Q: What sequence folds into this?
């Protein structure tokens, strides 16, 4: 990389791709009222992107492509996830589930850096964290696909 300016430009690529994907996918999934399948496919795409990033650490172009796909998939799936609780739960249960999900999410924000650090220390490879995140995205995809009923519609 030639300069810090170029580093900034390269760092903006995944975020720009994620912004475009979030806007387009959010509109599209809301227009056709389909969130379950989109979430599952997006988390799988995110998993693929992170795996590509872990495998292609020597290539700037492939790393940027992997990070762009990974972040776009993972972050575009988040708003789709939050649509589901009010569709499958009563109003009161949905409020409690949102509070519970937020609590677990905050614990994840504490635990994830520690787990990723331990994985890197144990293996000696930075890619270990990418692989852990890729596996967790596959788990999220499978859980949404298997546990949430097909054909959810807005109430």
A:
């Amino acid at each position: 990389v030639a300069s810090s300016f170029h580093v900034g430009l390269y760092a903006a690529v995944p975020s720009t791709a994620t912004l475009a994907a979030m806007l387009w996918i959010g509109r599209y999934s809301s227009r056709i009222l389909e969130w379950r399948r989109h979430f599952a496919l997006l988390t799988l795409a995110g998993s693929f992107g992170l795996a590509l990033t872990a495998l292609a650490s020597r290539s700037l172009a492939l790393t940027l492509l992997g990070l762009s796909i990974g972040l776009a998939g993972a972050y575009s799936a988040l708003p789709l996830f939050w649509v589901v609780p009010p569709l499958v739960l009563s109003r009161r249960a949905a409020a409690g589930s949102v509070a519970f999900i937020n609590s677990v999410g905050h614990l994840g924000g504490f635990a994830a850096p520690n787990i990723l650090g331990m994985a890197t220390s144990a293996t000696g490879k930075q890619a270990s964290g990418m692989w852990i995140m890729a596996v967790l995205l596959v788990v999220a995809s499978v859980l949404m696909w298997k546990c949430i009923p097909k054909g959810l519609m807005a109430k």
